[in-house]
Amino acid sequence: MEEPLVSVLLASYNHAPFVEAAVRSILSQSGVAFELIVIDDGSTDNSPQILERLSHEFGFYYKHRENRGLVQTLNEMLTLAHGKYFCTFASDDVMAPGRLAAQSQFLETHPEFAACAGQVKNLRSDGNLEDTVDLRYAKTQEATFEEILLGKAELHGATEMIVKEKFAAVGNYDENFRFEDFPAWLALSYRYGKIPVLRTVCCYYRILETSMHRNLNFIYKQILAVIEKYKNHPAYSQAVALWKTRWFSSLAYNQKREALRKLPQLATCTKTFWMHFPKLFIPRIFLKY
């Protein structure tokens, strides 16, 4: 078999209704040699049976074991990867056609970059795909470390493609945190400089109520812990104030009682915070998220 240029790492966990579509969307990629590596991280549904069947059908690497968490699972799969580049993929998403070829070709012709990102279209809870890309990510053409630190440039973790050797040099995924993308973007841009964002649609991203990113207190607490690693950077204090404001603003929209409870923890003496403060008293129906 041809040596893979790209390794796709799929960590599976309790996505039995979606995991077969995820695998088949990856295996439908063309235009580049790639490998698929799958580890089921202790699913309690019938995901392992589905993946076992698919691995026999298509011959990709598959292992089922006890639950260890997403970040540890991704690092385990990295030890098995043979590609020059790699991308991770969630077991409930769908990979857009041509994604692997487009991103690997870009990195092959732009060796100065350690990674690139791309665009997503959201898959709504009813299963319908939105017509246009998510504008939060479409507005970014490239992201510097400071822009990522300050939340000025957003990169979607489902669209990553990373140079494996360069990622190893920053220590791979940081197992001190329970999510992978934000710490990785910061580590790569801090060491290697800006990360370009391609116009290529890389992922049809499934919006689920059970998604970890719905847990606002968990996510923002983790973000503040991540940026603590860069407390000697000149923009660190500004970053703390901005992420606390985002945390409060999100709670003021979604969970007003929780926003009030956390007010002493999240309030900052900044104009930006006090511009968002009135959201606490405005009914959600009148607010723009």
Automatic annotation (TrEMBL):
Gene3D superfamilies: Spore Coat Polysaccharide Biosynthesis Protein SpsA, Chain A (3.90.550.10)
Domain Glycosyltransferase 2-like: residue ranges: 7-124
Signal peptide: none
The name this protein goes by in its record: Alpha-1,3-rhamnosyltransferase
Organism for this UniProt entry: Hallerella porci
